[in-house]
## 1
Amino acid sequence: MTGITRAEVAHLARLARLELSEDELDHYAGQLDVILQSVARVSEVATPDIPATSHPIPLVNVFREDIVQAGLDRAEVLACAPAHQDDRFRVPRILDEE
Amino acid sequence: MSTTKSSAVDVIPFDQALADFEPVLGLEVHVELGTQTKMFCACPTAFGAEPNAQVCPVCLGLPGSMPVVNRTAVESTIRIGLALNCAIASWCRFARKNYFYPDMPKDYQVSQYDEPLCSNGYLDVTVQTQDGPQVFRVEIERVHMEEDTGKLTHEGGATGRIHGADYSLVDYNRAGIPLIEIVTKPIVGTGALAPLVARAYVTELRDLMRALGVSDVRMEEGSLRCDVNCSLNRPGDPWGTRSETKNVNSLRSVERAVRSEVERQAALLLAGGRIIQETRHFHEDTGRSTPGRSKEHAEDYRYFPEPDLVPVAPSDAWIDDLRTTLPELPSARRERLQQEWGISAFELMSVVNAGALELVEATIAAGVDQAAARKWWTGELLRTANDRQVELSDLPVTGEQIARIEALIAAGSLNDKLARQVFEGIIAGEGDVDDVVAARGLVIVSDDSALIAAIDAALAEQPDVAEKITGGKFQAAGAIVGAVMKATKGQADAAKVRALLLERLGVAE
C-alpha cells in the first residue's frame, strides 16, 4: 500500500545532499520499497484509535533547572574543527541553491 | 534567484495603493527568553560574550550529547500563552526541523511543529485614528518553543553578504538560546491603518514580554525580531500571494516595512505584474526591501518528533499556578495610569504612541507634575528623538533631570525656552542639568534695569509700535517682547517683559 517511487528517492537524496547515480536511484528505490512495505504491515494490525508512538518510554516533563554549568574550553573546541579563524568556526562558502 | 521586474514605477503612494487594494498581514515575532541558560543545555545566554565562549557538546551537536528541556523556558512560554489568552496544550512534543545551513551545527533545529505549546489566543491593540483611539483584536495562531541559531559572518567578496563571500565564520553562542515564536492569524480589515496596527501589535507584545519579565525584548540586540507577511487583494477578491519581509529591526521599521510592501505590491499589481512568494530583506537606511529567497517551492524540512526529548505535558495545577504569577498586564496598567493621572484616552494614547509611558511614569515618580512630564516627553523630547530617528527611551534624559529642570522653572531661573537648551546640552553630552546651566550660562535675566534697557532699545527701533500700544492695540506689544527676548537670547521671562513694557508706556490692559 505504501511503496516509494524513484522520484521520491531522488527528492530525499537531494534534501540529504546525497549524490546518487541513476543506477543507485534504482537500487535504493527497490531496497527502500521493501523496507517500507515491511513496516507498512504494522498498520494492518494498528487500528485508528492507537496513536503513533514517537517515544518508546512513557515519560513526560523531564526538565532541567535553569542553572548555568561550565561548557567546553573554546581552544579545545576550535581545535576539533577542520578550520577556524578569529575564535569562530570557518566553513566553506555557502552556495545559493537556486 | 528570481526577481520580477516591473516595467512601471517601483512604488506608488500609500494612499493610492489603498484606493485599489486591501492589505492582509501576518506577523511572526521571535522572542529570545531571558533565561540564565539555553533551551536544552546549561550554557549561559549573556549577550555580547566572546565568540564561542558559551558552548557545550549539546549546543555544538557533538555525537552522544543529549538535550534536556529548561523548566524556566517552558514556564515562561506558558505564561506568555496565558497572557495572550491562549489555550495551553495538555501534551505536546518537540520536533526536528531538518535543513543544511551552518547556523546550526546539528543540521537541524529543535522546534515545535504541529503541536505548539500554546494556541488560539488574541491580543487587543489600540491605534490612534482621526476619530479617536480604535481597538483591533489581533488573533494569535500559535506560540511555540524552539532554539535560536548561531551567528554567521560572511567573509571575502566586497559586500560582506553571502553572495560573493569566500567563506563564512560561525559563532555558536546564540545557538540553543530559548526562542519563542508567536504567530498571528491573518490580520484583515485594517485598511489604511495596517502599518499602525502592525506597529501597535509588536509594541504591545514587547510591553507584554517586559511586564512578564520573560525577555529583555531589545530589538537592536535581536532579542525581539519580527517578520512581516503581507499580501494585497482587490475588495471582494481572494487574498493575494504574500511576501515575507525579514530584518525588520525596530518598531518604527515594522510600520515602515508594511507601508513599503503595500506600496511596492500595489505598483507591481497595477502594472500588470505578479507577486511572487518570496522572502524579502528590509533595509533600515532606505526603508525599502530587496528580494531574497524565492519561496515558490515550499521548503521540505522533513519535520519529525524529536526522539531525544520526551513530551511536555503541563498539568492543570501547574498552569493554574503559573496563572497566579501573571503581573498587571500593559492594558490594565494603562487604564490605571489614565485614571491616576486624570487624563483622557486621547491624551494617554499620545503618551503611549510616543513610547513614553514608562518615561512619563518615572518622571512623575521623580516629583514632576503629570502635565509637565507629558509635555516634555511628548513635545520637545519626542521631536528631538524623531529628528534623530531614535526611540524616546534612547535619549539620555532621566525623570530626575526633568524634575530638576522643573524645579528651576518653578524658582524662576529657567523658562521653557531655556529648558529646551538644557535638554539640548544633556543630549549633546555636556553633563547633568546644573552642568549645562552653568556651562551655557542659562538663567532668566531678572534684573529689571537690564530688561528696561532692552525694552527702550526695542522701542527706539520700532517707534510706531509704542504708538499702537498706547492707542489700545495691545497685541502690538508682541513685537517689542520678541525683540527683547531676542536681545536677551531668550533668557528673559516674556510675561515680565510685557508687564514692564506696559508699565513703561503707562498703559494697562
## 2
Amino acid sequence: MSPILKLAYRYFSKYRIRSFSMIISIALSIFLTVVIGSLSLSVRNANVIDCKNLDGPQHVIYRDRNFNLHNFKKLKANPQVKNWAALFYYGAWVAPNGYTVNLLAADRTILYMNNTRMQAGRYPIHSGEIALEAWALQRLHLSRQLGQNIPVRLLNGTETTDYRLVGIIQDQMQTMSTGQLEAFIGFNRQNLQERATENNALNLLVEFRDQTNLNQTIKQTAAELGLKISDDTVLLNRDLLTALGQMDAVDWYLVSVALMLMLVGGMVIYSIYSISVLKRVQDYGMLRAIGSTPRQIIGIMLAEVAIIYAAGALLGIVGGGLFVQLFKGATTSMFIPAAIEADNFQLGIIMVSPFAIKLSLLIALGSLLAAITRGAWLALRVSPIAAINRVTQDDNINLASNRLEKLLSIPQRISFKNLKRNKKALFFIIIAMSAGCTLYMVESFKGVLFDHSAGNYLTVSSFWSDDFGLNVNGTTPMARGYSQAQVEELRHMSAVKHVKAMQVLYSRLKLRPDELNGLYGERYVKYMNRLEANYSGDQRTTFQARNRQRFALFDRGELVMRNTVIGLSSHDLTNLEKIMLHHTHRATRQSDLPRAILYIPRVNPQGTFKEIEGVKAQPVLNIREGDYITLTFPIQGYRRMGDNVALINDYQANKGDYADQEFVVTGVIHTLSETDQTLIGTHYGPYLYVAEHDLQRMTGFKNYRIIGIQLKHPERTADYRLVKARVDYLADLLPGTFVSDKVQFKKEVEEGHRQYMLLIGAIATILILIGGLSIYTNIYYDLISRQREFGIMRAIGLTKPQLNRMLHFEGLLYGAIAALASCIIAFIIEYAIMAYYLHLGEDPYMTGRFFIEWKSTLLVIVVNLTIGYIAALSPARQVNKTPINEAIRSVE
Amino acid sequence: MTILETRALKKYYGQGSHQIRAVDNVDLVINEGEFIVIVGSSGSGKTTLLNLLGGLDRPTSGQVIIGGKDIFAMNNRHLTIFRRRQIGFVFQSYNLIPVLSTWENVTLPLELDAKPIDQDYLEDLLLTLNLADKKSTLPSQLSGGQQQRAAIARALATRPSIILADEPTGNLDSRSGLEVVHLLKNSVKRYHQTLVMITHNETLAQMADRRVRLEDGKIAV
C-alpha cells in the first residue's frame, strides 16, 4: 500500500471519534437531503396521479361546436395521442325527488378519463341504456338492480323516456363530495343527432404520451382538428399540466434545504478537521522535513477524507432510501412546500430522487474540500521546523477583563476567557447549533401562527370546516328554506358539535360609474357578462341565456351588478368583523342604516381571475369603508315564488319587482368568507355580509338556505350515519339542494397535516442532531486540547470537584450562548414572517400580535444546555483520569 | 528541623523483567530552609522523585512526610489542598495559564483556595521578580525569563513551606537562568522556605546548600 494511503488510513482509524463524527455528519446531511428530495419527488408524482384521478388523465379537452366526427380518425392516427374520449352534454334529467342529474353521452374511454371503472354490469352503448355511480343511485332513491327501467324526463321536456340501467359505475370521490350527479348514456349516432346543436359542443378529452412537448403538441393537435385556439375551444387541464411541469422543474426548496444541511454539517466537518490537522501539525512538519512535498501532504488529507466521504455517503444514501419507504401509503396534503398547491393525496409510489442524491453528494464533497483546503493551509503555512517546534501560537490574544468576569470564580473566569479566545470555534458552534434550533423554532411558530390563521379561516368559511353541508338550490323559491326549528333540531343531535345556518339573498348592487375601479372594473364587467352569457348550465329556468348583460348593465346612469347577500347571526358577523377587519380601518360613521361587510373581487388587468405572475390583482370596485351602498332585489318576485334565475338575471324585464335598501359599508374584504355554492350565487361577483335580522326585516324571509354541520366525533361511523341520514332527509325536503360530505376528505387532510408536522419535526431533529454533534465535538476537542492547562491547575491545587465544575460551566456556557443565538435569530425570523403576513395583508386571516412560542423556545434552551453539559462530561472524565504529571507533559 | 522526609520511597513501572524502577527505595531527609539540588543523568528518576515529593504522583510504596504528615495517607482532595497551600511548583515549561494575565496567574492558587489576597505581599513579590509593570500582560507577551519569573511568583504566592523546581532554567539562556535561580534563592531565604531543585547545570548546582545525586532511581553515595 502506498505510504500516503497507509498514513491516511492510520489517521482515520487512530482518531476514531473525529472520523466517526465526520462520517455521521455527512451521513445525516445526505440522509435528510435524500429523504426530503425523494418525498418531494414522490409528492410531485403523487400530485400528478392525484390530478389524473380528480380531473382525469387528459391533458386537454378540445371543444368542437361543429361536431366534426372526422376528427376521431385524426386523433386515432396521431402518434402523440395516448388515449382519447368523446363526450357531449345530452341534457338535464330532473328526478322525481327533485334532483337534477347531468346526462352525459360518452364512449367507454370516459371511465378511464374519470379514473373510475364499472363496478357492476357494463357501460351503455345503445340508445336507451344508462349507467350511474352507486352513490347517485342512492341519492335518487333508486335500487342497484341492473336491468331496471329508469324513467327519465329532461328539463323543459314533456316526455319521459325509459332508460335501462345496464351498469353501475364505481363512486368518484370528487362528484360525491360536491354532490354533482351525473349519468352516462351511450355515445351513438342517434344521441348525437339529437344534441348536435349550436348551444352544445363535442368534447374530445385527449391524453398525450409521456415525454411529449405538451405545449407544442396541444397547439398542433388543435390546428389539425380545425379548431381555433381560444379559452373556449382548448380547455387545458391546468392542474395536471402544472403538476407535470413541477416534476421537471428544479426543486429549489430542496436545493435550499440541502445547502442549509450542508452548511450545518459542513461546519462540523470543517471544525473537526481543522482541530485534527492542528493536532498533527508536528507530524506534517516532520513529514515535510524528511522530504514529503505539499502535494503528498494534501494527498494524505484527500485520502483520509475520501474514506470518510465514501462511508458517510453510503450510509446517508442507503439510510435515506430505506427510510423514505416508510412513507409509502402516507396521506399528505401539504407535505412539501413545493407541492403545496396540490390537494390531498396518497403516496402510493415512493420514488428515490436521483437529483437529491447527486445534489447531496456534490454539496458534501464541497464541504469536505473546503475542510481540506483549510487543513492544507494550516499544515503548510509554517516552515517544517516551526511546525516541529509547535511555534504556532497566536500571539494576538486580547482578553481584557470585564465586569461580568469579576463576578465569576477563577475557574469560571478561565472558562469564560477561553470562550472569548476561541471565537472561531464559538462562531461555528453557534451557527451549527442555531441552524437546527432556529428552523425548529420557526417551524413551530409558523405552525401555531398558521393554525391560528386556519382556525380563523375555518370560523368565517365553514365550507371547508364542515363535515356536512346543505345548500338550497338557487332555483328554489327564496321564500323557502330551512326553518329555525329544523336548525335547532340539528343542533340538539348528540353527535353534532356545531351548526352554522345562514340566509341568502340573490340581489344586485346599484353603483355609480365612478365606483368601478377604472379599467379593472370595466373589463371585469365585460368578462362577467360574457361568462354568464355563455353558460348554459342550470336549466331549471325559463330564462334564456341570450342576454349579454345578465351580470351587469347600465340603467339610468347607474351600473346594476349582480351580487349575493349572506345573512349571518350576530355571533358569526362579529367573528367575521373581528377576523377579517382587524387590519383595516373600521367605519365609525354614525348611521342608522344597516351595516354590511363588502367583499370586492380582485382581477388582473384583463379583468379576469387568472393569476399572472408578477402582476398584483386589483379590486373591481372603488368602494371604501364608510361608504354607502345600495342593494336592490326583486322582493315582489321572490314573494310571488317566481323564477329566481329569471328575476335576478333579467333586470330590465323585472325591474318593477325590485326594491332598494341602503347599507353602510363597515369593512371591505378581498377574500371570500361564506359563499353560496349555487350558480346564481357566483363567487366571481361581490358579496355582502349582513346581520340576519336586517335581512329578515328587508325581505320578511326567516328561512336558512345554507347549513354547515360539524360532528363531534367524525371518526365514529354510527354518528356519521345518523347525521348523514338526517342531512339526506333535509335535502329531500327541498329538491335540488346540494349536499356535501367532507368527512373522509377532512380525515385525510388532518392526517396529511399531522404527517407534514412529523416531517418538519424530523428535519428539525436531524438538524439539531447535526448541530449537537458540532457543539459536542467542538467542546470536546477544545477541552481535551487543554490537558496541559488543566494539569497545571491540578498541580497547583485545583481539586477534582473544582475541575468538574469548571468544565461543566464551560460546556453550559457554550450551550447557553448557542441557545441565546438560536432564540435571537429565530425571533427575528418569526417577527419578519408575522410582519409579512400581518402587516402586508398577505394572509387576511392572520390576526393578533407577535408572540413567543414558549414550548419550542424552552425546548431549544434545554437542548442546547444539555448538549453543552454532556459535551463536557467525557473530557472531564478523561482529564481527571490522566495523571497530573502526564497531563503537564502532554503536547497541545 | 526536618521539613520533608522520604521513607523507603519506591516508584516502579511495569512488572517482571520489563519493570522500570524510576525511584528505588529512596530515603531522604530535607531540613527547613535548605536549598537542595537533585542531580543525575537523564532517566535517573529526578523528575519522578520530585513529582513524588510534591504529591503529583503516588508511589508504589513508601512514604513522603512533610511537616510531620504522611501526604499519601491523605485522600486526593486533601492532598490537592495540602499541595495548594504547602508546596509551590516551578516547571521547566513555565506552565502559565495562557488566558490569564500575569497577576491572575500569580493569584491563581490563592483564588482556588478562596483565600483573601495579600496585595502588599504579592506586589512586593512581583517587584522582587521585576514583574511589577507586567501585571496585566498575558504570558504570550512575556519573554521566557519573564514567564519563568511569573511562574516563580505563582509558586511563592501562597507562602508554601516547600518549593519544588523542575529544571526551572531549562528553557532559558544562561544569564536568565542564573538570574532566576538567584531570585529563587533570595526569595526562599527571605520567606524561610525550603527549595528543592532539579538541574543539569553545574554552575547552578553549586549554588545549592546540598547536592543529592540520583543514579538509576537510587541516591548515589
## 3
Amino acid sequence: MELYALTAHELSEKLIRREVSAREVTQSVLGRIASTEERVHAYVTVTESIALAQADAVDAARASGESVSPLAGIPIALKDNLCTTGIETTCSSKILRGFVPPYSATVVEKLEASGSVFIGKANLDEFAMGSSTENSAFGASHNPWDIGTVPGGSSGGSTAAVAAGEAIWAIGSDTGGSIRQPAAFCGVVGLKPTYGRVSRYGLIAFASSLDQIGPVTKDVRDAALLMNLISGHDSRDSTSIVRDVPDYTRALTGGVKGLKLGVPKEYFAQGVSPEVSASVRTAIDTLVSLGAIAEEISLPHSEYALPTYYILAPAEASSNLARYDGVRFGHRTARATNHVDLFEKSREEGFGPEVKQRIMIGTYALSAGYYDAFYLKAQKVRTLIKRDFDLAFEKYDAIIAPTAPTVAFKLGEVSDPLAMKLNDVLTIPANMAGIPAISLPCGFSDGLPIGLQLMAPNFGEETLFQIAYAYEQATRWHLGRAQL
Amino acid sequence: MTTTYEPIVGMECHAELLTESKMFCGCANAFGGAPNTRTCPVCLGLPGSLPTMNRRAVELVLRTALALHCEISLDCLFARKNYFYPDLPKGYQISQYDDPIGKSGYLDITLEDGRRKRIHIRRVHLEEDTGKLIHAGGNESEVDYNRSGVPLMEVVTEFPPDIESADEAKAYLEKLRSILIYLDVSDGKMEEGHLRAEPNLSIRPAGTSGVGVKTEIKNLNSFKSVYKGIEYELVRQSELLNAGEPVRQETLGWNDVSGETYHMRFKEEEQEYRYFPEPDLVPLHFETADIEAARADLPELPDAKRERFASQYGLREYDAGILTASRPLAAYFEEAAAGADPKAIANYVTGDLAKLLNASGQEITETKVTAAHLRELIMLRDGGKITNNSAKAVLAEMFETGEAPAVIVETRGLAAVSDDSAVAAEVDKALAASPEVVAKIKGGNEKSKGFLTGMVMKAMKGQARPDVVNRLIDERLAAL
C-alpha cells in the first residue's frame, strides 16, 4: 500500500523504526494531492513548503537522537476555521480572504509541539454553516467515494482529505454534527469530544456553546491517538474543563462484554433510509454477539433538537459574526462613504447567502419581544434534551444510532435549506447535551459509506473508543479505501 | 403663568478599575501611550480569540458593591450587548444584564446645610471598555484599541431616583468618587476619563411627586459639567413644558465650551442591544465565605471614619468631614495627632497647611511636611517653646525645605522669650507710654488690655508668649 493510504499508527511504527522518513510520508501525501485534489477539492490552501520543512525538522530531530513524539512527522489537514500563525485562515468565506492570523489555535500549537506536519487548510461550509461543504466561497468539496456526491459538512474538506489519502488524519470541528456527518459520508472515523475537553481557543466561532474541535481519522486507534494530542484544559478557554487526560489508547481493549447499549427508537424514525437503518441494526447485532446488551430506549425530546438548534446556533452566530465589519481585518468594501456604510457593504459583499440567512434568524431570535419566545424557550428545551440523556445514561453505558439519515447525496441535489438541515437531525442532540459522540463506518449503500454513531456521558470518550474499537476489530469497513 | 419645576436625576457612573491587566486578556491596563501598543488578539476581537476573566476586577467590583451596601448575587452571568461601532472590536460588549454582582444598595450624601440624604443604588456591575475613535481630519477616523477591554464598573442609581437637584447630584458623585478611591478600586481621575458620569433627568412641578420624560447626558468628566449639565437641562425642559411643548426622550451630548447640551439621538433611534448570556464565559459564582471575607477586608469608609474622628478626637463634624475626604489625608491627620492635641493638629491641617497645599497645587501625599514634623511643631508651640505666630512662620519654612521644626526654630532664633525680665521691661515701657489706656483699664475697661498686649508682642517681634505677657501686665497693673 502507498504511504498516503496508511493510518497514523502504522506510519508511526515505520517512522520510529526509520523504515521511512517524514519527508517520504509527506511527499507521498503531496503526490496524492497532486493527482486527486483537482477532483476532490478538499483544501482551501495546501501548505507544501511548510509541510516539507516540518517533515525535515522531524527527520533531523530523529536522526540526531532527540526525543520526539512517536507521532511526529504525520501529515495532518487542519479545517480552515482554525487559526494558524502565518497561514491564511479563511473559514471558506470571502470576508476572511487574506486574513493571516498572528497567532495559532491552542490545538494547532499542541500539534506543532508534537511534530505534526501541516499539509493544508481543509475546505468547509462557510463559517462551518452547512452539511455538504457546498457553501464554501471557494467551491464545493467532493466525496472521494463518488466524485458526483457531497462529502457532507461542514468538515467535508477534512473528511474528504482523509478518505482520499490527501492527509493521514485531520482536525475538524463539530457544532451540530459537522465532524460526524461528513465522517459518515466519507467512510472515516470522526469524534465530537465532550464540550470543554478540547480547547476552542483559536477556533473561529460559529456557535460558542456548541462548537467543539475533534479528530477525523481512518480508524479508531488513530482517533484515540489524535485525542491524546489535542485534549486538555487551556487557561485561554474559560469553558475548557480542568480534568486529566487519560491515554485514550488504553480503552482499546477489544471487549464490550456486559456493556449496556441504549437504542433510541426516535433515531430510526421517518427520514432514516431503510439501508442506513438496516446497516446500523446489523452493527448492533454484531456488538451483541460480542457480549454487549442492547435495549430499545426513548429520548422523547429528540424531535425538538433540530428546531431548538436552529434558534440557539444562529443566535450565537449572529453575535459571533459581528466582528467581521471591515474595520480591522478581512474584506473591506471599496464603496463606503461612512462607517455604517462600511459595515453594511463589507458584510453584504463578504458573507454568502447561508451565513446571511443564519445571521438574520439569530438576530430575530434575540430581538426584544422575541427573546422569551425563541432564545429563552430554546434554552429550556435544551435542558430537557440534556435530561433525556442523563436519564438514559443512568441505565446505559452508551447510546447507539445512525449518524446521518442517509448516505451522501449528489452535489446540488438538496437545494431546500430545510431539507439540508435535516441531515443533522441525529447528530445535533449530542451537541445540545454537550456529550461526546463518535461516527465510524458500518457499511455501504450503493457504494457510499454508512456511519454508525455512539454517544456516551460527559467525558465518556473512553467508552466510545472501547465500543468502537471492538466493533472495528470485528468488521472490515475501516479497511476500505476510496478508489480515485 | 409659568410653572416652577424641579429635576429628578438618575446617575449612571462608569469607573475604570485599578487592575494591572485588562478585563479579559493579559494586556496592561494603563493610560496614554502610542495608539494600539497595548493590544492582543483578545482585545482586538480577532477571530477565534476567547475572553478569560480577570479575577482582580471581579474582586474590586465585589468590594464596591459591599461598600455600597448592595445585595450580592451569588451567581452572576455575563451578557453580550450587541451593537456595531468601529471602537467596539467584537461587535458586542461583554457586560452584565440580569444578575449584576451587586444590587439594591445605597450611599448617604451630606449636603452643604449639613442635611443627610440616602441615595439608593440599583446595580453595580462589571463590563469592558471600548476603544477610542480619533478623528484624523477630513473624512477619516482612526481607532486606538489601547482602552479596548479595560475593566469598567458601572454604578446605577435606583429608579425612581432620589436625587432632586444639581447639588445633590454633585454631592453623590463626590461621595461615590471618594468611596472608590478609599477602596483602591479607581483613581477617580475624571479628567482622564477614569470616572465618567451620565446623569438622566426629568422634571416635575416643584413640590409634586412622580417623574417625567427623561433625557440623558452622555460622558461627563467633571463635577462642574455634571452640575451645569443638570442645571441646563432643568431650564431647557422647563422652558419646553412652559411653552406647551413636550420633552422628548433623547440622548444628549455636552459641550463644555458653550455650557449647553446638544442632541445626539432620540429614543426611537436607540440601538436594540439583543442581550444574551455570554457563552464564552462560565457563570461567576461567589461562596458566602468569600463575600464575608471581602466584607471583613473592607477599609473604614468615609462616613464611619468621619464619625469616629468626631467622637474620638472631639472634632467638629465639618472638620472631621474635611479630614476624611481622602484616605491619605485622614492617615496623615491620625499620625500627626498621635500624642499631640488633635484639635490643634486638625486646625493646622485644615487651615495653614491646607492653604500652603492649595497655593502650591500639592497633594497631602506630596508635601515635605511630615506628619511627625507637624506634631513636633504643635508640641513646640503648645509647650511654649515658640509662639503661635512663630509656628506659622516655621510651618511655611518646613513646607519649603522639609526641615525639622526644632532646627528651623534654632537657626532662625525663633525660640519664644520666656525670660520674664525681658518681657517685664517691655511691659513697663508699654504702660509708661500709654497712661490713658492704663486709666481706661483702671476705670473698668478690661478689653483695653489687648492694646497693651499687642504693643508688647510687637516689641518682642512675636517671640514673647502671650500668657506670660498677659500675666505680667496684670501684675504691673495691680501694683500701680
## 4
Amino acid sequence: MSFLQLHGLTKKFADTTAVDNLSLDVAKGEFVSLLGPSGCGKTTTLQMIAGFVDVTAGSIILDGKDITFAKPNERGLGIVFQTYALFPHMTVEKNVAFGLEMRKLSGSDIARRVKDALAMAQLEKFAQRYPRELSGGQRQRVALARALVIQPPVLLLDEPLSNLDANLREEMQFELRRIQQQAGTTTIMVTHDQAEALSVSDRVVVMREGKVIQIDEPYVMYENPATPFISRFVGKTNTFAVTLTTTEQGRQFDLDGHRITLTNESAIAPNTGTCEALMSVRPEKIEIGRQGQGRFAGSVKNSFFLGNLWMYEVQTAFGLLIVSVINNHQQVYKIGENVSLDWHENALKVLAAEPAGDL
Amino acid sequence: MTHPDPGVAPARKRRLSFLGAMPLTLLFIGLLIVPLVLTIVLSFRPYDYDLGVQAGWTLEQYIEIFTSNYTLTVFWRTLWISGLVTIICVLIGVPESYILSRMKAPWNSVFLLVILSPLLISLVVRAFGWSMLLNPMSPIGKLTQMMGLGSLLYTSSAVVIGLVHVMLPFMIIPVWTSLNKIDPQTIKAAYSLNASKWQTIKRVILPQATPGILSGSLIVFGLSTSAFAIPVLLGGGRSRMVSNSIYEQFMVDLNWPMGAALAILLLVMNLIIMMSYNQILERSYKRSLG
C-alpha cells in the first residue's frame, strides 16, 4: 500500500488542461521527481498536492486519508519553494522555529528540534543571521531545514536548485539527497533539469502537456526511453531513420553498407514485416577510433573539451552524430580528421516505428 | 563602450560631477538653507510694537513662549492631534492597503485611483465639504447632537477627522508599496507551516510591511504638525495649531521675531520626535529588511 496516492488528478484552467488524469503511487521514504519542460503541468501537480491549487477532478490520498479538499495549512506538508520564501524579517533560527511555534510545541522542544535541524543542514554558525545575509546555497538549506523540522509526512520541492549556480547546484543535489535520506522523508521534487532528476531520485516521472509519459527508475528511463521526446529530454542521444526488415536472423536494417541485426536489448520493434523506424544511440556508447578501425566512416566536424569528457561532432553517411569520450588518456582527434565509429548492437534502441511520431 | 584614458578621467569626472551637482545645490541653499538661517536669526531679534524689528540679540521670544500657557497649549494640541491622526491613519490605512494589495486587476487600479482622487481636489474645498457635513444643521450634525456629543464642527474632533481624511493617502501609498514587495511565496510558506490566516498576517505580512508603516507615519505626522488650512476651517478659533499661531504672529500681530521663534520650535520638536521614532523602529528592521 503506497503512502501517497494521486488518482486521476486533473486540473483545468479556463480553456486549457494543465494536468490531465495523472495517477501516481509513491512509497514511504521514496524520492520521486516530476520532470518535464516548462508548461508540462509538473508545478501545477505539486501545487495541488500542497493545496494551493484546487483540484478539478481526481483525488489525493495521504497515508490512507483523503486530503484532496483539505486547506494548505491543514495538510502539514513540508514545502521548499523555488524562491525559498524565507521570512526576511526573521533570523535563520526563527525561520526554522516558525512551523513548530504554529504547532504550539513547548519552548524547550522547539529549541531542541531547531538545533537538530540546523545541525542536519550544517547551519549552526548562521542561526542568528538574517536571510539576506546568507548565500544562495545557505538559504536553500534554511528552506530545507524549515520544511523538515516539522517532520512532515511528505516533502515537496519546487525547483529547489534552479536559483543556484552550476557548481553549487551539483553540490546541493548530493546534499539534498543526503538530508532526505537521513530524515527518511517521502519526497516529491519538481524540476526541468534532467541531470538533477536522474541523480537524486528513486523514480522519475516524465510529463509533457499535462500527461505522464513514463514513470521509471532513472537508469531504466535513460536506457529505455519510451518515446523519442524522452530520449532527447533525458540525456543526449543520436537518432537516425532506418528501414527495418524481418529475416530469419531477426529484425535487420542496412546502414552505411552494413547489415545490422537488432538484439533483444534494442527494445521491441512494433510490427513484423518491413517498416520505417527511428533508431537511437547514446553518445557515450559510440566507440570512436582511427580510420578503418570501426564499421562506419566519418570525419570530425567539431570538438568540445568538457573537462571530464571530449565531445565530438562526427559527420557520417547517415547524419551528424555526437560522440563523447572519457578524458582518460584516450586518443584525441582533431577537427577535420577522418575517424571511424562503431557500437555494440545492444546500444541501439528502437524509438518508434514511424520516425514522424514525436511524443 | 570604451573608457577614456584612466589618468585623465578621474579629474575630469570629478569636475563634471561637481558641475552636475551645482544646480540642485544652489536651489537647496537658496530655497532652504538661506531662509532657515534668516528665520533663526530673526527669532533672536528684539521686537518693539511701535518700531518693529530691532537690531541686537534677545531670548525674549523664547522665554515668552515657554512661560505662556496659551502657546504651550497650542503646542501640546498640535502634538496630540498629530499623534492621534497618525495612529488613526495607521489603523485605517494598513487594513485598507492590505485589501488593496490583495485585489486583482482591474479593481486594484480602480480603487487606488479612488484612494488618490481626493488629492486632486483643493484642500480648502475638502475642508468646506467637511464643515457642511459636520455643521449642526446637517444630518451628521443632528445625529451627533442626538448622541449628546454636540456639534463637532469647530472642535478638535473635526480637525482630527479632517486631517485623517487628508492624510490617509500618504499612509496608504507607502504601506501598499511595501505590501506589494512581499514575496507571495512567503505567505504560502506560512500556510504550509500550519499558520492560520490571522497568524500569517500577524507574523509574516505585517512585520514585512513595517518599513512602509514607518515611513507613512513619519509623513503623516510631519504634515499634520504643520497643517494650516484644516485647523482654521474646521477648528475655528478654538482648536488652532502651531501653524495658525505662526500665521497670526506674522500677518496679524506683525511680530515677526515671535512668528520665527514659533516656527523654529515647531521644526525642532518635529525633528526630535521624527528622528527618535525613526531610530527606535528602523534599528530593529535595518538588518533584516534593509
